[in-house]
User: What shape does this take?
Amino acid sequence: MIRQLDPSEFSLAAEVIRASFATVAKDFGFNEQNFPAFTGFVATKERLQTQYERGALMYGLYDKEQLVGYAAISKEAEGVYEIHNLAVLPEYRHKGCGKQLIDFCKAKVRELGGAKINIGITEENTRLKNWYAANGFVHTGTKKYDHMPITAGYMEWEE
Assistant: This one.
C-alpha cells in the first residue's frame, strides 16, 4: 500500500532514506568526510519537514504497518515534476517495490496535470541508471559539482 505521509511520519521516512542510501554509500565509498551532502547522511525529519513546507508531496510504501519505501514529488514548472529520494529498504529490493513507487509517482504526476518527471542520480551508479531506463526514463545529461565526489546524472520520463 502506498499513501501520503503525515508529518508525524517524517522521522520514520528519514530512517528509510538513510538505510536505503547507506548501501550506495558503501558501494561507492562515500562517507561524511568525502561527501557530507550525500542524501544518506543528511536525511532528517527536519529536512523532510522543510521539503514538505516547500510543497513536496511525500509518499510511503507500506508492508502491513511497516514503512519500507519512500518517494517525494515536487512541482518544478508547469507540467514538470521531480522525484526526490526514492528509497526502498535493502531487504525489500528486487521485489517490485521500487517499480510500485515509480508507477505511483507517474500516476500522481498525471493526476496533477503533469507530463514530465525529472530525477537526479549518481551517474556512476549504472545499475540504478539502467533500472530507471527500464522504467521509461531517458538520460538527459550530467554535471560535475566541486562539492561532490561523483558526477550528477539527470534523467527524465515524459508522457
Remarks:
- Residues 2-158 form a domain with the Aminopeptidase fold (CATH 3.40.630.30).
- Helices lie at 10-28, 39-42, 45-53, 97-111, 126-134.
- The first helix runs from residue 10 to 28.
- The radius of gyration is 15 Å.
